[in-house]
Specification:
With about 575 residues, this protein is of the alpha/beta class. Helices cover about 35% and strands about 20% of the residues. It folds into 2 domains: about 5-245, 3-Layer(aba) Sandwich (Rossmann fold); about 265-495, P-loop containing nucleotide triphosphate hydrolases (Rossmann fold, 3-Layer(aba) Sandwich), CATH 3.40.50. Strand 13, helix 11 (about 315-325) and strand 14 form a beta-alpha-beta unit.
């Protein structure tokens, strides 16, 4: 069926008092589905998706074993069948198998003249016969406002409409009634009062020449419902809606790590890279290597057997694969076989494999062709379709920065909440302006787990890329600024040169190292010469000391001899005097 395929779709609780529409997001807003056995009004202008929702409601019920009847007051049965098959519903097969019947109730202008009245008894009898013949429990009345011109007065139409809704309640058939906004039909005839069980309003918003479809549940009698406005996506793949404004602040936590594919960067993140299921923001100026770094993470994830969805908002698939192949990142080898987008027929099987397929899916999307909300829907539908483990949005700033939309931050936060709740690892690149001082303008840091900032360093006629890990929750990160090198050999992290003149990168790093080596060699030579001179001085000093000692010793010996001679002479004189004295006696 053309129903939303989403990981959280299985969490919707089906109760006997509700009838699922087959659109998981809408059923989640309605807390299970539209009221069972009662009428629901679906109103909106042309092109808002009323008929698609009605067809989804009918065909989903038929697939679940609930035959249905479609009553049209506007389009022909053939046009409705073609419309249904265009969205992937096998409506003709359902008709052939007797599980769907279409009643053409378009007024015949040749039989009912303006000013006359039309009696609905015959119409109700035909509808009752069709319901009983199929044992149908689901009924769609499409474009009920198409009968307005066949009634002579407002009171008569008002009473007949009340009769129709009462009849639906009495038969306890689950009915979806569509009406446009033509001439304020719903307000004029009080349809919201009559169909007070449930009213769903659809409208289109056009901002900056970009259209977004929005849904809101106005009322739902007998049960709670979400009250916000919800954007939805309507294209060849069917209708897709995620109640993003009602997303809870939950996240699937993993202790497993994902390598960046660059050993030096893994080391800056504690050795093994970021945690799986985390949100990684790669910010930097143009040409700093954000996309290449993201592709390195993609290659590492594919090598680990993970499923990867790469959404590029600026480069085509051929451009991306060619440019990265030059750097040794061959993304083409990891792409899944049959990578083209799924057609409507692929949506008919709601029993998808619960496990994601590995490999890479590349999806280029022009950022300017869709509104923010529709981009969000497309991203979530692709996630539901491919069930990736890792999603790359390159660059996410192309969504947030366009037109300075004040709702951009809110939209991005909701997207990050949804991806975290799914346990999907997100790699988002952000373009920073040259005069922004390296400051992120997304203002979503509260939801970012790992923030890696890249910048250009211009010096001596050369541009070098520098990388810094600004934050990484739960990881022991490096506080250093290092060089990020991109070459034909791949990506690498280089340690900066720390010298006496400061930090140097690139060729200046080599020049500074050479200068420092030359200076060191010169200092070594001067040191050797100084040491030699010092040794020579020491030897001269020692020789002079030895000579002084010799001279001192010689002078001492001479003085000792002189002293001995004088002492000997004095002794001789003393002896002579003693001898003379003895002679006189």
């Amino acid at each position: 069926m053309s129903a939303e395929t989403h990981r959280e779709g299985a969490t919707i609780e089906h109760r006997p008092d509700v009838a699922p529409t087959g659109i998981a997001g809408l059923d989640r807003i309605l807390r299970g589905g539209v009221p069972a056995g009662r009428p629901t009004l679906l109103r909106g202008a042309a092109g808002t998706g009323k008929t698609v929702i009605a067809l989804t409601f009918l065909c989903h019920g038929i697939a679940a074993g609930e035959p249905g009847v479609l009553v049209t007051f506007d389009e022909s049965p053939e046009a409705l069948l073609a419309h249904a098959e265009g969205f992937g519903f096998p409506a003709r097969r359902h008709v052939a198998e007797g599980r769907l019947r279409i009643l053409d109730m378009r007024p015949d202008r040749n039989e009912v003249q303006v000013g006359e009245t039309i009696e609905l008894t015959v119409i109700l009898a035909r509808i009752a016969h069709a319901l009983e013949g199929l044992a149908a429990t689901r009924l769609v009345i499409d474009a009920i406002d198409g009968i307005e011109a066949t009634f002579a007065s407002y009171p008569s139409l008002r009473s007949e409409l009340a009769r129709v809704f009462d009849w639906i309640r009495e038969r306890r058939v689950t009915c979806l009634i569509t009406t446009g906004e033509r001439g304020e039909f719903s307000t004029r005839y009080g349809l919201e009062d009559y169909v007070a069980d449930c009213v769903i309003a659809l409208r289109q918003e056009v901002t900056n020449r970009v259209m977004t479809r929005v849904l809101r549940v106005v009322k739902r009698r007998g049960g709670a419902h979400e009250t916000n406005e919800y954007p939805f996506l309507l294209d060849a793949g069917g209708l897709f809606l995620v109640p993003v404004t009602g997303a809870e602040l939950t996240a699937k936590v993993s202790d497993r790590r994902l390598s960046t594919g660059i050993p030096g960067l893994d080391a800056m993140l504690g050795g093994d890279g970021p945690y799986r299921g985390s949100t990684v923001l790669l910010s930097g100026q143009a040409g700093t290597g954000k996309t290449s770094l993201a592709c390195s993470l993609v290659r590492a994830a594919c090598e680990a057997g993970l499923a990867v969805l790469y959404i590029s908002f600026e480069e085509s698939i051929d451009e991306l694969t060619r440019n990265q192949r030059v750097l040794g990142l061959d993304l083409a080898r990891y792409r899944r076989d049959g990578h083209e987008a799924a057609g409507p027929e692929d949506h008919q099987d709601d029993h998808r494999d619960d496990h994601p397929k590995d490999g890479l899916v590349l999806r280029p999307v022009r950022a300017v062709e869709l509104g923010l909300e529709e981009h969000l829907m497309r991203v979530m539908r692709l996630i539901g379709e491919y069930r990736p483990d890792l999603v790359v949005l390159d660059p996410i700033s192309s969504l947030a920065g366009r037109g300075h939309d004040p709702a951009a931050k809110e939209t991005l936060l909701r997207l990050l909440h949804l991806l975290k709740a799914e346990g999907v690892t997100l790699i988002a690149t952000e373009l920073l302006s040259d005069d922004g001082g390296g400051v992120s303008h997304l203002d979503v840091s509260s939801m970012i787990d790992v923030w890696i900032r890249l910048r250009r360093h211009e010096n001596d006629g050369e541009i070098n890329r520098l990388i810094t890990v600004v934050k990484a929750r739960g990881l022991p990160i490096s506080n250093q600024v290092k060089e990020f090198r991109i070459s034909g050999a791949g990506l690498a992290i280089e340690e900066p040169y720390l010298g006496t003149g400061g930090i140097a990168y690139g060729t200046a790093r080599l020049a500074r190292a050479a200068e420092d080596e030359a200076e060191l060699e010169q200092l070594d030579q001067e040191l050797e010469r100084a040491r030699h001179a010092r040794d020579q001085l020491t030897e001269v000093t020692a020789a002079a000391a030895r000579l002084a000692r010799i001279e001192e010793e010689a002078k001492g010996a001479e003085l000792d001899r002189r002293i001995a001679q004088i002492e000997q002479r004095l002794a001789q004189i003393a002896r002579a005097r003693a001898a003379v004295s003895r002679g006189r006696e």
